[in-house]
Write a structure and sequence with these properties.
alpha+beta; Aminopeptidase; seven-stranded mixed beta sheet; 40% strand; globular; binds coenzyme A
Length: 142
């Protein structure tokens, strides 16, 4: 089951922060909701527990994917694919122009999944991840 996270949902917010400490030690989700009117989270639940999420910014007529993660134990079970499908469905229903993201050049699995869903490589961002280049990818919707 995929939910659209709400700031009032403290239970899932705490679980997300606990299960993905590398990401959320940098910023808290409630803080993100309070300071960033564009931020949104799709959260994948199994038996009412968080196993993955996709954080994106909905900026007027486009979407930027910010974080996209599935717990190690649950990877390669198409949970990431389902989260991405949900995001694309949402973007199409809102008649948005595009979805963009940056990915490390060496993250072959993520690049594979994005391409599977029609994202194209637009440009290389030199040293975007400290010493590793990033690829700007885009899925055009219109
Ligand atoms: C990227 C991520 C969210 C994908 O989630 P997931 O649930 O594991 O992905 P899925 O199970 O939906 O899809 C896996 C697909 O990748 C393929 N795959 C697995 N390892 C691969 C590799 N090393 N290279 C290429 N493809 C690979 C699988 O065969 C599968 O293909 P299929 O859909 O044709 O069957 C997850 O791996 C993750 O959290 N990674 C760490 C964080 C990260 O890199 N996030 C992306 C940042 S841009």
């Amino acid at each position: 089951m995929i939910i659209d996270l709400d700031i009032k949902n403290s239970h899932y917010i705490e679980e997300l922060e606990e299960k993905f400490p590398n990401i959320f030690s940098k910023f808290g989700i409630k803080n993100d909701f309070s300071n960033n009117p564009y931020t949104k989270y799709l959260v994948y639940l199994i038996d009412n527990h968080v196993v993955g999420f996709l954080n994106y910014y909905l900026i007027y007529d486009r979407i930027e994917i910010v974080e996209f993660n599935v717990l190690d134990f649950f990877q390669n079970k198409h949970i990431g694919s389902k989260l991405l499908e949900e995001l694309i469905k949402l973007a199409v229903s809102k008649k948005l122009k595009n979805i963009t993201l940056e990915v490390r050049v060496d993250n072959l699995k993520a690049i594979y999944i994005y391409k599977k869903y029609g994202f194209k490589e637009v440009s290389i961002r030199k040293k975007y991840y400290n010493d590793v280049d990033g690829i700007l990818m885009e899925k055009e919707l219109m």
